[in-house]
Amino acid sequence: MVTRRRTPTPRPRTRAFGALLLTAAVAVPLAACAPAETGPPVLNWYINPDDGGQAAIAQSCTAAANGAYTITTQVLPRQAASQREQLARRLAANDSSIDIMSLDPPFIPEFAEAGFLAPVPEDVQQKVTQNVVQGAIDGATWKDQLVTVPFWANTQLLWYRKSVVEAAGLDMSKPVTWQQIMDAAQSQDKYLAVQGARAESLTVWVNALIASDGGSIITSQEGGVDSIELGIDSDAGKAAAEIMGEIGTSGLGGPGLPTADETASLSLFQSDKGSFMVNYPFVWPATKASVENGSLDQSVLDDIGWAVYPAVDESKPAAPPYGGINLGISSKGNNVDLAYQAAECIVSPENQTEYFVSNGNPASNTTAFDAPAVSDAFPMASTIRDSLQQAAPRPQTPYYNEISLGIQSTWHPPGADNADTTPAQSQSFILQVLRGERLL
Predict the structure, then answer these.
(1) Residue 242 domain-assigned?
(2) Would residue 348 be called left, alpha or beta, if left means φ above 0 and alpha means ψ between -120 and 50 degrees?
(3) Is 327 in a helix, a strand, or coil?
(4) CATH of the domain at 134
(5) Can you list the residues of the chain whose pLDDT is less than 50?
(6) What's the pTM value of the predicted model, to 2 decimals?
(7) DSSP 227
(8) Burial environment of residue 35 by CB neighbours within 10 A (0 to 12, 13 to 18, 19 or more)
(9) Residues 6 or more apart from 237 whose CB is under 8 A from it?
(10) What CA–CA distance (Å, rounded) separates 326 from 335?
(11) Number of domains into which the chain is organized
């Protein structure tokens, strides 16, 4: 899932979240006050906005339950930060009306630490992790325990214009590096499309660069917020800053780089100045739709190729961004066992396949990629699967909001600061925020 989080947090979550818990009881009425229901138990599934795919799955699984339960869907706000806030407030108020939640992976540790997630039964763990890509399993795990159910996964690919690659003489049959694609784009006087806006997409980019060089934004957090250790000010962090700095200061990212999100990147890539782009699989159906409605020429679609995310160092495999949605089962609900039965149905390979084709959200289960309907809709399906297998989640921590917003504050705009100073300044700032010494 492509998400953008711009809602600032005035103080570290260890303090702000406590205030949120205090106000939750008055902010949200408890479900216990609702009138008693008759008939099969109703499972409320709180979903992120999509093109109707989750609602269709809910109907299908309700029918398959043969009267054991009924699934209804409730749509959360579009912004992931607002989704987190609404769910956290209600769960903190012991709202029992929430049964199943579509959760963005970075919020899973916070919900697990707060006790909002019901333990995943061992038999369910075995079923929902069979044939599932490693990136999705990693994203569903906290403290070495599976705490959510992998549903759909997402990752960024390296998209390229075949004509530019041919003119630059770049061999795309093997993994390429950031430096190679930057050199190729410059040699052809083209732009390289990336997401430089001060938004969650910037954190995604920084994390992928650091992870691709073998680093990690968080190196230790066992002692809690007061002893958390970061790996931003490191060789991997400096390598990330050098790449972003060159793209920003050389003009490679185009004039709109400081405000470029995923959609703006796609527009730049589709233009006459396009060469390479890192972006999600929605690129393909979106481009096809533009051709069909006449706003884009067929030749642009025919000129598009794809590969796994670029490497930072040719001796190290790339760590592409990982995103998507996992299913969290609320510990506050009255039908936890039924909710896990429903979750198993929701994430079945058949439902993941249909959701991939109809809504364009890649499956976490590898068997879905073998379906002819998937390869017909996404010719790059095997590359998406390969990318998911080596993808790296964003930092898994209860303090994710502070870390992500701290990165956005200090790395934006790309190339504005010296590559030698940005990692150190970023790490210092985030640590000060976490300790309550500075505000975001």
Answers:
(1) yes
(2) beta
(3) strand
(4) 3.40.190.10
(5) 1-34
(6) 0.88
(7) G
(8) exposed
(9) 210, 215, 231, 423, 426, 427
(10) 19
(11) 2
- Does residue 5 lie in a domain region? no
Residue 90: φ, ψ to 5°: -70, -40
Task: For residues 353 and 417, state if they share a domain.
Answer: no
For β-strands 157-161 and 274-279, DSSP reports them as antiparallel
Residue-wise pLDDT tens digits, 168-225: 999 999 999 999 999 999 999 999 999 999 999 999 999 999 999 999 999 999 888 9
Cα angle: 302, vertex 170, 360; to 5 degrees: 40
Does residue 312 share a domain with residue 194? yes
Which tokens go with 389? 């297998």
DSSP-derived secondary structure letter, 150: E
pLDDT per position as a tens digit, 243-257: 999 999 999 999 999
- For residue range 29-77, what is the model confidence (pLDDT) as tens digits? 444 444 555 789 999 999 999 999 999 999 999 999 999 999 999 999 9
Residue 440 lies in a domain: no
On whether both 115 and 32 belong to a single domain, the answer is: yes
- β-strands 304-308, 157-161 pairing: antiparallel
Do 107 and 26 fall into the same domain?
yes
Write out the two tokens for 278: 């890192």
Q: Which residues contact 392 (CB under 8 A, 6 or more apart)?
A: 135, 138, 207, 208, 211, 212, 319, 320, 321, 322
- Residues 291 and 329 reside in one and the same domain: no
Q: How many other β-carbons are positioned within 10 Å of the β-carbon of residue 120? A: 21
Domain that holds residue 364: 13-147+323-390
Instruction: Check residue 5 and give its pLDDT.
Output: 38
Other C-beta atoms lying within 10 Å of the C-beta of residue 2? 17
Q: Is the same domain home to 274 and 213?
A: yes
For tokens 């039908």, the residue is 335
Q: How far is CA 78 from CA 128, 350, 432, in A?
A: 27, 26, 30
Query: In the prediction, which pLDDT does 37 show?
Result: 55
165 and 290 in a single domain? The answer is yes
- Close Cβ partners of 377 (under 8 Å, ≥ 6 residues apart): 285, 356, 357, 360
